[in-house]
Amino acid sequence: MTNAxxxxxxxxxxxxxxxxxxxxxxGDKSISHRAVMLGALAEGxxxxxxxxxxxxxxxxxxxxxxxxVEAEGPRRGRLRIRGVGLHGLRAPDGPLDLGNSGxxxxxxxxxxxxxxxxxxxxxxxSLMRRPMRRVTEPLAAMGARIDTSAExxxxxxxxxxxxxxxxxxxxxxxxAQVKSALLLAGLYADGETRVTEPAxxxxxTERLLAxxxxxxxRDGASVRLSGGxxxxxxxxxxxxxxxxxxxFLVGASIAPGSALVLEHVGLNPTRTGVIGIxxxxxxxxxxxxxxxxxxxxxxRIAVRxxxxxxxxxxxxxxxxxxxxxxxxxxxxxxxxxxxxxxxAEELRVKESDRIQVMADGLAALGITAxxxxxxxxxxxxxxxxxQVRAHGDHRIAMxxxxxxxxxxxxxxxxxxxEVDTSFPGFVDMARDAGLAxxxxxxx
Length: 443
Ligand code: S3P
Description:
Bound molecules: shikimate-3-phosphate
Number of helices: 13
Strand order of the largest sheet: 21-22-1-23
Number of domains: 2
């Protein structure tokens, strides 16, 4: 969450070093959100292990507590939720503040549209700027009543007591958040809700619904469910977040002498675009001990330094690597030749405008980076030192921190939020692995 104190945080990264050792990054953010949501709506108790104790997932948990759900923890990744059943949520006393978390807001919009009571959703300055019509419009087609600002942003005022009906909806943008919002509303709708994706997006909602015993069907690019079922709680193990592992995959790839092992990483094929992209660039990444845990594939990733080459990023990998582009851009800056990305306009409406913010930061470090409306061209070269701004975006801050491994001089990263949004303990873990990073109060 962005507040004045956090805006003032600065990372200072001394150049050089290498990454080594074995580490387990924190739990997957997307799965942690969904585990809380479905655990709350289930019957019986849901025990979650490996829960991400980061601000975003904690915002979802706080929202469900405000909706009358009892939960114990989280303590060292363990969280126990007493499900209230699909119709057991209570009206909250006031607005639900979801901080920096787009996933919380969009998924909750769908889920709360089906409740008997009114609710209001808000968040920090970044979240209040993000587009919400992508969920409110199809939800309205299902019979929901949700008011946004004139610009289509939060606060979202959700009018309860509406009768929802299933729809057959083709997503105009590849978005797991929109798909999930509609499926969650579909739990409360008459008839069938069917969502068709223009390209595959993360499917954790579908997998977890099935894990809770709710019938969900996939045919090709479509997923569908019918309202009126029940969810049964049970144990959930959240794998380590590949989106957090991505910073270390890039760091080890660009720093000579690096050899790093990342344990128990979620390897859901709708999330592994970063591995495909880095491998195409020449990265030395091996996957070992792959197995299925709680309905999600996991495995160990071994990564070593390797010379990287610029590539044209295959369009089909874009939605499968959507959160990893800040890190991938740093890899591109260290690669020989040009890397080109297109078809990624979504990056402009993430926690920051990740195309512009990364282009500005790379330019400040001496790299030629040309932003395009839907992507970027990055000419690999010598990363100098310099001062960049993270614009309060956790993934920008961590990506530029890793750039220090290949830089010729010190990098100062201003306007870092608590990277705790998605990765509590990043600074200590990165330092232990070999990154020369310190945190200070910013200017
Ligand atoms: C997420 C989906 C993605 C991703 C976000 C988490 C999710 O957003 O960027 O960090 O958990 O469903 P979109 O679905 O909007 O692309």
